[in-house]
C-alpha cells in the first residue's frame, strides 16, 4: 500500500462507514505454499473485493461453488513456482469497480475502503484478490460496464454510468485532498503509535502502514501490511522459533563446504550438544582454524518484515525468529541503505526499538550527493538474510552477506559475516602483521591497548577499514564505524566476520575502482588529512630522560655541528616536576626557556610531550590543573560518581579528564591548560591562592609569552591517561582504578585481547564520561582529545597545529599524526615498520613514522645505520629511545652512523618540496603520501605482497636494506617506463627485479618531474635555510620521452593558506625535447628555479629557453656516459617558461628495443 503522508490539519469528521483493512489478514494461501505473500511482478497490483453473498461460507463447507472461477498462476517469494489461486466472482458490493469478465480492471486499492451496511448482513465475509492492469480513464471505465446492461435498462444504466463516471472523476481529482486526507485520518485513528510526534521523537522511524519488498535482481515488488502488535506480542510471549528436524538440519549442514564454515560458537569452548541446540552444525576437523561448530546453509535468525525505497536509499525491517544464544536479542532490527554518492554507500544495521551508542567522532556529514551514475547496486531478497553489494560495471558481487554465517544482533554481541570478491585484503589495524592480510583463519582484536607491538595482539589504535584489490585491479573499501571492542575474523573463503561488543553495525562501502580512489573516497567521508607545517617534515630528535636541559643542549649541538640536517628538538616527560603536566623542574631544567629561545633564533623548533592525565597527589591549592579541573567537574567519574583515580608508573596518583564529549565542551576545558606553558614549581606557586588557578585566558597567555616556553607542537598525547610516556589508549597502571572498584564486566563474549577482562591496564568499563560509559568510548579517547587539542593550538598559536599521537581511531588523520609506539631495537621491528606505514596511509593518516633505531633496547651501529637510511624517508622522521637504553642519536653511535644519517637526511631535505606537495594533495584531494608499489599498477598482482619497498608519491621508490650483515638488497622495478638512480641519474631497470647497493636504494620512476631544493653545502641544515634556496627540477622521461610534475608552495605555517588562496601551484610537463611550466595559481612568492636535470637524453647540440638560445649566464652540460642533460639558469616561476633542446643526431627508439636504447651501466 502507498504510504499515507502525515498531515496534522483536520478536514472532516471521522466516518464510521469506513474501515481500515490489513492486507495480511486478507491473503489467500494456496495448498503447499510457504507464505501468503505474492510476488508483484512487473509492478502488478492487487486489490481486495468484498463478497456479500451470505451463503458463501456455507458453500465452502458444503462443496465447491457453482459459480465460474478464473484461475491465476503467481510466483510466491518463498514458496514454489506456478502456484494456482482461485478468484471468485460476485455481484456483491464493490465500490471501487468489479471484474467484468472481458479484461476490465479496477483501480488501485489505497488501504482504506468503504464498509457496506446491508441490513441483516452476516458479519463474516470472504476476501479475495483481483488482478488489474493500468488504470483507465472515466470513459474507458464507463464503457467496460455497458455490455453487462440489459436492453430494457439502457437509459437507467446510462444515467448511472454517467453518475459513476462523475463520481470517479471527482474522486480522482479530490483524491489527493479530501479522499487521501479522509483515509489518512482513519488510519491515524487506528495507528496512533505510528504517527510522528515532533515534540516527542521516536527511537526509530516506523514505515507504517506499508511493508514493501524489492528484489533488485528481477525488479519485482511485493506489498504486505504491517504485522500487528498483537502478533508480535504473542510471538515474544511464546518465545518460539522454527524447529528443524535432525534430517533437515543434517541436509543443510551437508551443503556447507569447508571454506564456507563460519563459526557459530565463538565464545568459550564449543561442544556438540550446545552447538546443535543453537541450531548449528557440528563436525570435527584436523584443519587448523576451521570451526567445529558452524552455521548451516540458512540460519534464520531474522525474517524480513518490510522494505521501502526511494531515490536516496532503502530501509528494511526484520523481526527476530530464532534466539542467537546471546542475551538480549534485538526483537526488531532495521537495515538502512543510504546512497551517499555514486561512489559511496552506507549500510546501517541497528535496533529499531531502542537507541544505542554511536561514535561522535569522526564527524560525518551524512548528505547525499546527486546521483548521476551509481557504481553499485544493492540486492535484497526477502527469502534470505542479508544483502549483496554489486559493482555495476562488471556485475561482480563485492560484498555478500546473504545467508553467510549468522546475523546476530544482541545487546553486547553483534556479528555479521560476508564473502568478498578477492583474497587480497589490506588494512584492518592496528596490528603487527604483513601488509596484505593473511586470510588463513586469522582472528584479531581491535581494542586500544598499551603494549609493545607484538604479532597477534591488539595494539594502540582501532582502524576497522579494509581495502580489497581484485586480480584485474578493481578495488573497493569498507569501514565499520563502531568504537566498541571487537574481533575481526578472516578466512580463506575469502570471507570476513565482524564481532563487536556493543553499539551498532554501521558500514560504509567505497567503490573505487582504483585503490587510490578508494582512499580518496574514504578520507572524503572521515576527513582529509591535516596540512602539516613545513618544518615538521624535517628531522626530529628525542630521548626519554635527557634528565637536564644541559644534556639536551649538548646532544642538540653535537648533532647540529656534525652536519646532521635537523629541525626539531624534543623533551620527553622527564622535564616535568613530579611528572605533572604544565610544569617543569627548575633544578634539572633550569634555563629551559632560554634554550627554547636559542632554538627559535637558529630557525629550529621545540616540542614537548604532554600527558593529559592530571596528577592527584599534590596538596590542595598547589597544582592548579587539578584544582581547576575539580571545580570545572571535568574528570572521569567512577560508578559511585566520584573522581576516578588511576596510577602512574612512578606511583603517583592520577585523574582522567573526561574529554569524550562534544568538541566545544572538550575544547573549553582543554584550551586553558594549553595556554599555560610549563611553569616552574616553586613555593610561591604552592602557596598561591585558589583564584590564581582561575585567572583569565588572556592573563595565562600573557604569562606564557613572558616565559617564552612556547613549544611548537605537542607529541605523544596520552589523551586522558596516566602520566607515563606515550600512553594514550588510555593506559593505567592499575586495572580499572587505584581507589574503589569496578563493576563486574559480565561479557557474553570477550574479544581476543589476550587479557581476561577489558579493563586490564586501562579504566573501569563502567567509568563515566560526558558521552557515556568507558565501555563504549574507550577507543574514542585519543581522537576526542586530538580534536580539542588541534583547535586549541590553532587558536593559541595562530598557526598550524602539529600533534603526534600513539593511539588512533577512524578519522584521526584530520587532526594528528601517528607513530608506531614502543618498538624494539631489532631487525624484525625495523622491517615491520614498513607494513604499518603503508597501512596508515590507507587509514588516511599520512603523517606517520616509527622511532628510528627502535625505542626499547640497545641499537647496534649496523642496525641504526640501516634504520636511519630507511627512517630518513618516513613522513614523520624522528630518532627516539627510552631511558633504559643507551643513547642512539647519530653522533653517539659514531662516524659510520653519522655519515649514513647525513647522506640520507640531505637527500630527504632536497625532496621536501615534493613531500610538501604530496601532503597538499592528501589534504585537498585525499591522495596518499607513502603508498605501496601496486597503487600505480593494481592489476599487477605480483606487487600486492611487496611490503619491503614503498613509494613516496607516484614517482620516488625507497628500497632499504633490511637484513643484518647484508650489503645489497633485491628490488622489484615494475612497469614499462624504467627507473633511475636518484643520485646520479643512471638507468637501473625496467619491469624486472634488480639487486641494489647502498647508493641505489632511492630511485625515480620514468614519467615524473620532481621539484627539489638542495640544502646548503656548508653550515647547519634546517627547513628554514633550505626554503630560502633556489629550486631545481629532476626530469625522468618515460618510454615515450614524456613526464609530468607539480609544485605547491605557501608560507609553510599559516592556517588555511589553500582555502584563502595564499599559495602558488605550478605544473610542469615534458613532451619529447621540450619542458613547459603552467602557473595554475599564483598567490605566494616561490623561489626561483636555478637548475633543470633531464635524464636519459641523446647527445645535445643546443638548448633554448623561452625560444632564446641558452647563453651566459645560462649554461647547459651533457654527460655522454650517464646521458644526463643539465640546464643552469635563473628562471622565475611566476610566469610560464619553456626549455627546448636539439639533439646532435635524432635517435628514434622502437618500443620493443627501448630497454637497449636506454643504455646506462646497469642496462639489463
Automatic annotation (TrEMBL):
Pfam family, one: Glyco_hydro_31_2nd
Region span, Disordered: 57-82, 107-128
Xref: CDD domains: GH31_MGAM_SI_GAA (cd06602), GH31_N (cd14752), Trefoil (cd00111)
Biased amino acid composition, Basic and acidic residues: 57-74, 116-128
Domain spans labelled P-type: 251-297
InterPro entries recorded: Gal_mutarotase_sf_dom (IPR011013), GH (IPR017853), Glyco_hydro_31_C (IPR048395), Glyco_hydro_31_N_dom (IPR025887), Glyco_hydro_31_TIM (IPR000322), Glyco_hydro_b (IPR013780), P_trefoil_dom (IPR000519), P_trefoil_dom_sf (IPR044913)
Gene Ontology BP, a term: carbohydrate metabolic process
One GO molecular-function entry: alpha-1,4-glucosidase activity
Keywords in alphabetical order: Disulfide bond, Membrane, Transmembrane, Transmembrane helix
PROSITE patterns: P_TREFOIL_2 (PS51448)
Listed SUPFAM superfamilies: (Trans)glycosidases (SSF51445), Galactose mutarotase-like (SSF74650), Glycosyl hydrolase domain (SSF51011), Trefoil (SSF57492)
Membrane-spanning residues: 146-170
PANTHER family per record: ALPHA-GLUCOSIDASE, GLYCOSIDE HYDROLASE FAMILY 31 N-TERMINAL DOMAIN-CONTAINING PROTEIN
Protein known as: P-type domain-containing protein
The species this protein was found in: Heliothis virescens
Amino acid at each position: 500500500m502507498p504510504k499515507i503522508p502525515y498531515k496534522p490539519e483536520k478536514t472532516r469528521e471521522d466516518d464510521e462507514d469506513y474501515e481500515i483493512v490489513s492486507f495480511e489478514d486478507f491473503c489467500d494461501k494456496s495448498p503447499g505454499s510457504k507464505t501468503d505473500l505474492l510476488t508483484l511482478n512487473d509492478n502488478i497490483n492487487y486489490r481486495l473485493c468484498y463478497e456479500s453473498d451470505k451463503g458463501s461460507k456455507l458453500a465452502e463447507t458444503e462443496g465447491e461453488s457453482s459459480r465460474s472461477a478464473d484461475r491465476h498462476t503467481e510466483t510466491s517469494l518463498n514458496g514454489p513456482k506456478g502456484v494456482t489461486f482461485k478468484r471468485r466472482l460476485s455481484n456483491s458490493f464493490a465500490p471501487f469497480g468489479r471484474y467484468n469478465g472481458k479484461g476490465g480492471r479496477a483501480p488501485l486499492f489505497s488501504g482504506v475502503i468503504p464498509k457496506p451496511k446491508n441490513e441483516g448482513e452476516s458479519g463474516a465475509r470472504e476476501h479475495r484478490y483481483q488482478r488489474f492492469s493500468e488504470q483507465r480513464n472515466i470513459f474507458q471505465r464507463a464503457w467496460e460496464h455497458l455490455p453487462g446492461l440489459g436492453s430494457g435498462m439502457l437509459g437507467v444504466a446510462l444515467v448511472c454510468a454517467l453518475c459513476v463516471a462523475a463520481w470517479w472523476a471527482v474522486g480522482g481529482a479530490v483524491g489527493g485532498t479530501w479522499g487521501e486526507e479522509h483515509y489518512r485520518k482513519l488510519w491515524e485513528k487506528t495507528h496512533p503509535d505510528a504517527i510522528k510526534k515532533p515534540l516527542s521523537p521516536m527511537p526509530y522511524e516506523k514505515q507504517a502502514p506499508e511493508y514493501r519488498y524489492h528484489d533488485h535482481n528481477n525488479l519485482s515488488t511485493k506489498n504486505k501490511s504491517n504485522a500487528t502488535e498483537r502478533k508480535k506480542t504473542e510471538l515474544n510471549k511464546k518465545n518460539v522459533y522454527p524447529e528443524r528436524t535432525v534430517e533437515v538440519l543434517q541436509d543443510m549442514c551437508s551443503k556447507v563446504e569447508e571454506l564456507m564454515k563460519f563459526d557459530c560458537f565463538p565464545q568459550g569452548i564449543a561442544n556438540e550438544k550446545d552447538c546443535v541446540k543453537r541450531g548449528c552444525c557440528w563436525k570435527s576437523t584436523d584443519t587448523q582454524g576451521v570451526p567445529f561448530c558452524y552455521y548451516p546453509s540458512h540460519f534464520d535468525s531474522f525474517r524480513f518484515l518490510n522494505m521501502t525505497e526511494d531515490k536516496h536509499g532503502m530501509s528494511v525491517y526484520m523481526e527476530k525468529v530464532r534466539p542467537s544464544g546471546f542475551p538480549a536479542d534485538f526483537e526488531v532490527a532495521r537495515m538502512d541503505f543510504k546512497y551517499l554518492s555514486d561512489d559511496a554507500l552506507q549500510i546501517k544495521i541497528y535496533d529499531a526499538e531502542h537507541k544505542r551508542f554511536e561514535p561522535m567522532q569522526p564527524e560525518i556529514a551524512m548528505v547525499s550527493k546527486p546521483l548521476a551514475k551509481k557504481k553499485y547496486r544493492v540486492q535484497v531478497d526477502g527469502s534470505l538474510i542479508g544483502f549483496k553489494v554489486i559493482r555495476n560495471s562488471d556485475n561482480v558481487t563485492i560484498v555478500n552477506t546473504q545467508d553467510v554465517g549468522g546475523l546476530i544482533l544482541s545487546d553486547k554481541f553483534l556479528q555479521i559475516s560476508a564473502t568478498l570478491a578477492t583474497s587480497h585484503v589490506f588494512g584492518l589495524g592496528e596490528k603487527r602483521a604483513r601488509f596484505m592480510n593473511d586470510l588463513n583463519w586469522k582472528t584479531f582484536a581491535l581494542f586500544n591497548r598499551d603494549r609493545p607491538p607484538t604479532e597477534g595482539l591488539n595494539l594502540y589504535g582501532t582502524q576497522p577499514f579494509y581495502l580489497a584489490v581484485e586480480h584485474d585491479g578493481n578495488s573497493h573499501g569498507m569501514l565499520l564505524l563502531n568504537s566498541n571492542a571487537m574481533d575481526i575474523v578472516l578466512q580463506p573463503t575469502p570471507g570476513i566476520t565482524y564481532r563487536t561488543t556493543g553499539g551498532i553495525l554501521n558500514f560504509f562501502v567505497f567503490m573505487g575502482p582504483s585503490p587510490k580512489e578508494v582512499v580518496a573516497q574514504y578520507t572524503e567521508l572521515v576527513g582529509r588529512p591535516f596540512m602539516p607545517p613545513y618544518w615538521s617534515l624535517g628531522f626530529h630528535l628525542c630521548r626519554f630522560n635527557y634528565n637536564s636541559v644541559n644534556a639536551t643542549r649538548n646532544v642538540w649541538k653535537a648533532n647540529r655541528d656534525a652536519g646532521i640536517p635537523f629541525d626539531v628538538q624534543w623533551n620527553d616527560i622527564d622535564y616535568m616536576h613530579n611528572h605533572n603536566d604544565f610544569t617543569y623542574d627548575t633544578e634539572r631544567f633550569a634555563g629551559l626557556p632560554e634554550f627554547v629561545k636559542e632554538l627559535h633564533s637558529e630557525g629550529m623548533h621545540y616540542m614537548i610531550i604532554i600527558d593529559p592525565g592530571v596528577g592527584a597527589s599534590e596538596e590542595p591549592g598547589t597544582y592548579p590543573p587539578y584544582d581547576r579541573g575539580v571545580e570545572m567537574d571535568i574528570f572521569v567519574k567512577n560508578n559511585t560518581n566520584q573522581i576516578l583515580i588511576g596510577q602512574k608508573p612512578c606511583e603517583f596518583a592520577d585523574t582522567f579528564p573526561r574529554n569524550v564529549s562534544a568538541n566545544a565542551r572538550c575544547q573549553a576545558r582543554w584550551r586553558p591548560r594549553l595556554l599555560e606553558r610549563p611553569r616552574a614549581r616553586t613555593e610561591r606557586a604552592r602557596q598561591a591562592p585558589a583564584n590564581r588557578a582561575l585567572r583569565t585566558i588572556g592573563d595565562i597567555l600573557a604569562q606564557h609569552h613572558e616565559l617564552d616556553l612556547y613549544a611548537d607542537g605537542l607529541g605523544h598525547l596520552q589523551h586522558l591517561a596516566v602520566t607515563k610516556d606515550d600512553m594514550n589508549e588510555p593506559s593505567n597502571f592499575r586495572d580499572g582504578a587505584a581507589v574503589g572498584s569496578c563493576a563486574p564486566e559480565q561479557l557474553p563474549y570477550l574479544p581476543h585481547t589476550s587479557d581476561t577482562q577489558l579493563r586490564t591496564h586501562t579504566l573501569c568499563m563502567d567509568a563515566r564520561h560526558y558521552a557515556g560509559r568507558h565501555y563504549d568510548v574507550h577507543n574514542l579517547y585519543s581522537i576526542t582529545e586530538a580534536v580539542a587539542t588541534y583547535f586549541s593550538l590553532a587558536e593559541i598559536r595562530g598557526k598550524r597545529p602539529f600533534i603526534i599521537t600513539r593511539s588512533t581511531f577512524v578519522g584521526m588523520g584530520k587532526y594528528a599524526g601517528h607513530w608506531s609506539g614502543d618498538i624494539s631495537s631489532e631487525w624484525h621491528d625495523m622491517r615491520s615498520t614498513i607494513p604499518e606505514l603503508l597501512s596508515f596511509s590507507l587509514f588516511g593518516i599520512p603523517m606517520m613514522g616509527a622511532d628510528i633505531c627502535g625505542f626499547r633496547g640497545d641499537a647496534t651501529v649496523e642496525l641504526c645505520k640501516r634504520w636511519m637510511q630507511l627512517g630518513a624517508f618516513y613522513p614523520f622522521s624522528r630518532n627516539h629511545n627510552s631511558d633504559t637504553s643507551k643513547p642512539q642519536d647519530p653522533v653517539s653511535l659514531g662516524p659510520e652512523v653519522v655519515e649514513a644519517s647525513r647522506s640520507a637526511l640531505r637527500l630527504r631535505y632536497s625532496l621536501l618540496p615534493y613531500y610538501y606537495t604530496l601532503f597538499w594533495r592528501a589534504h585537498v584531494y585525499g591522495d596518499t603520501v607513502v603508498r605501496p608499489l601496486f597503487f600505480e599498477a593494481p592489476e599487477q598482482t605480483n606487487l600486492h605482497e611487496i611490503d619491503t619497498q614503498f613509494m613516496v608519491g607516484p614517482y620516488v621508490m625507497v628500497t632499504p636494506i633490511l637484513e643484518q650483515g647484508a650489503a645489497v638488497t633485491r628490488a622489484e622495478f615494475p612497469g614499462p617506463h624504467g627507473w633511475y638512480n636518484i643520485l646520479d641519474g643512471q638507468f637501473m631497470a625496467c619491469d624486472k627485479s634488480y639487486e641494489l647497493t647502498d647508493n641505489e636504494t632511492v630511485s625515480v620512476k620514468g614519467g615524473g618531474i620532481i621539484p627539489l631544493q638542495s640544502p646548503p653545502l656548508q653550515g647547519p641544515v634546517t627547513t628554514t635555510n633550505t626554503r630560502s634556496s633556489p629550486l631545481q627540477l629532476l626530469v625522468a622521461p618515460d618510454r615515450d620521452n614524456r613526464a609530468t610534475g607539480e609544485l605547491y608552495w605557501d608560507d609553510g605555517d599559516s592556517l588555511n593558506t589553500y582555502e584563502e588562496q595564499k599559495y602558488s601551484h605550478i605544473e610542469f610537463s615534458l613532451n619529447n625535447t621540450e619542458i613547459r611550466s603552467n602557473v595554475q595559481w599564483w598567490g605566494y612568492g616561490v623561489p626561483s628555479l636555478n637548475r633543470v636535470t633531464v635524464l636519459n637524453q641523446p647527445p645535445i647540440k643546443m638548448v633554448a629557453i623561452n625560444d632564446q638560445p641558452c647563453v651566459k649566464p645560462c649554461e647547459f652540460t651533457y654527460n655522454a656516459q650517464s646521458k644526463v642533460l643539465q640546464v643552469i639558469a635563473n628562471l622565475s616561476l611566476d610566469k610560464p617558461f619553456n626549455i627546448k633542446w636539439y639533439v646532435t643526431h635524432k635517435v628514434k627508439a622502437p618500443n620493443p628495443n627501448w630497454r637497449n636504447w636506454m643504455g646506462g651501466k646497469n642496462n639489463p
